Protein 1
Amino acid sequence: MDFRIRTFTPIWTGDVKRESIKFRDTSIIGSLRWWFEAIVRGLGGYACDSVGEEKRKLDVEKYKKGNKPEELICPVCYVFGTTGWSKRFRLEIDGELNRLPFVIVKADERKGHRGWFLGTRESGGLMGTSEVKVYGDSWIKNVLALSLNVSCYWGVGATTILENTNSSIPKYSIYLQIYFTLKKPHFSKDDDEFYIIDNPIIKDKVFKLPMVRPTMWKGALRFAAIKVFEDWIYEKLNESRIDKETVFKERARIAKLFGNEKDSQKDYLGRLCLLAIGGDLPTGEKLRKEIEKINKEFEKWLTDKKYVSKEVPSRSGRLFFYPTFFEEISLDVITPLSRETKTPVRGPIYFETVEGSKGTKSIFRLLYYPFDLIARGEFDEIEKEMKEDLKFLAKALKKMFYEIGFSAKKSSGFGVVEPINDNDVKVDGFKSDEVKDILLNTIHQS
Ligand SMILES: [Zn+2]
C-alpha cells in the first residue's frame, strides 16, 4: 500500500541547521495509532491506555504456553506493537520536507520578541510531500488505510494543528473550536501546606511545543461535568427530592459524553444520587452499602436503556478531544511556605507556565460524535439528544474555563480563561447555528 502525505501547515523540527529533513516514521505511526485507538473505542471496542501506566505488556509466559497474542493484548497493541510484541507492519518513507525560505515562524526562536515574525531561511518551517510505503498483511493494511483516512479528515493525529475542517465532518457530528486566552495562574496562599507542583502543560515529543494533552482536557471537562451534575442536584433539592429515573437520566449524560465512569468517581456520583433521592445521607457502613446498591442499580439501568451493551461493557464517550498547543512559555517560581511558620519549607521551585495575557489565543477543540445513536439507526433521536447533550456540555465547559481551570489541582487557578466572546466560538457540522446559540447562551448566562 502506498500513500502520499503533504503537509498543509509548516512543521518545525527544532533542527534549524538542516535544509531538508525526512518525515519521521514515528510521527506518522504515532498519529495512525492515535486514530486507530479512537476508532476502536468509538465502535465500543476495548483499547488499552497506551500513554498511561495501564499500558499492556504481552505476557510472555502465557504466550509461550500457546495463548494467542490477540487474547493477551488489545487490537491497537496487536497492530502497533507493545512491550514484548512488535508492530505488524513496516513503513518506508521517501521524499523530504524542505525548509521554506520565508515564512512566519515562532517567536521563541528569537528572544524578546512576542507573537510571530517573518523568518529567514534558517528559521523557516518545513513543508513538502512524502511517499509512504506500507508492508504487512492485507487486513493490517486495511486497518492502517482506515486510520489514515480518518486522520486526513481530522489532521494527522495528535501532533498536527488542524485548521480547515468545514468540508469534511462526519454526518451528525459537531466540531467545536473555542479560542481562549489564559488568565495568569494564581496560587492561593491558604490552600495547602505545600504548593504541589502542578503543571498540566507538557511538551509534545515531536515538535517540543508546550501542549495540553487530549486526556488532560478530557479529565478536566469530566470533572467539571460532575460538578454540573452536583449543582443541578443542589438546585433541585431546594424545591423537592428528585426521583430515581430523573437522577439516573442526568447522571447518564456524563457516561454518554465521556464514556465509562472512572472507579474513583463512582463513589462520589453514587453519593450524589443518594442525596438527590433521599434528601440526606446515611452514615458509616450503611452509607457504603447504599452507595454500592445505587451504583449497581444505575449500571443495570444503563444496560436496560442500551447505553451500555452487555457484550461490550466498556463504553466510549461521544466526545473526542484534541491537543492544544501553546506558543509561548515562560518560567515561574514559587517558594513553598509552611502554613504554621510561614517560612520556606524548601528552596524555590521553578516551573514552566504559558503566558496568558499577551493576546495570543490558543484553541480548544472538541468533536461531538453520537456514534452510538448512528450505529443504532436512531436518527430521529439524534437532534433531541444532541441538544440536551450540548446544553449539559456547555455548562461543563463554562465551569471548566471560568471556575475550575484544566489543571489537576483544582485550587491552583491554573487554566482559567479570560471571558469568551461570540467570535471565539466556532461550530461546524450538524445544526451548527443552533448549536452555537445553545453554547453561547449557556456560556453568557450569569
Ligand atoms: Zn493495547
Note: Residues 2-159 form one domain.
Protein 2
Amino acid sequence: MVAPRFRRKKKVFRKSPGKKKVVLYIREKTKPRRCALCGRKLGGIPRSSGSELRKLSKTQKRPERMFAGILCPSCVSTILKEKLRLDAGKIKRSAIAISHLKYIDMIKGESKRKKYTKKKREKKKTEKPKKKRKAKKAAPKESK
Ligand SMILES: [Zn+2]
C-alpha cells in the first residue's frame, strides 16, 4: 500500500547524479479554470489546490470583478452590454443567446430582490406604527 502522504501525488522517475533511478513524488497542479461561455483560460486564479489555496487571501484567489472566476472579462462586457440594451428596449429577449440569459438574469435578480425588500420595508413601516399608536393611545386613556 502506498503511504497516505503519497496518494495524491504524481510518481516521476528521474536519474540521480550517481545515475541511479529515483522515484520523486510531485504534487500536480490543477488544470486552469476556464470561462463558462467561451472556454478561454481565466487569469488571476492560482493553479494550486487544497492546503495551498487555503493559505492565500480572498483577493489572491480570484479577481475582484463581476462574475470573476466564472466568466472571462470579454464575456462579462458582452453580457453587461446586452443587459443594458434589454433594459433600454433596443433588443428583444429572444434575440439573446440562452446561455447569456442565465447570467443576465443573475444581474437582474439582485435588482428585483432589492425592489421586493424595499416594498416589504415600506409596508412594515406603514402598517406597524399605526397599530402601535392605536394601542398606545387606547391604553393611557383607559388608565386615566
Ligand atoms: Zn468568455
Note: The first helix runs from residue 51 to 55.
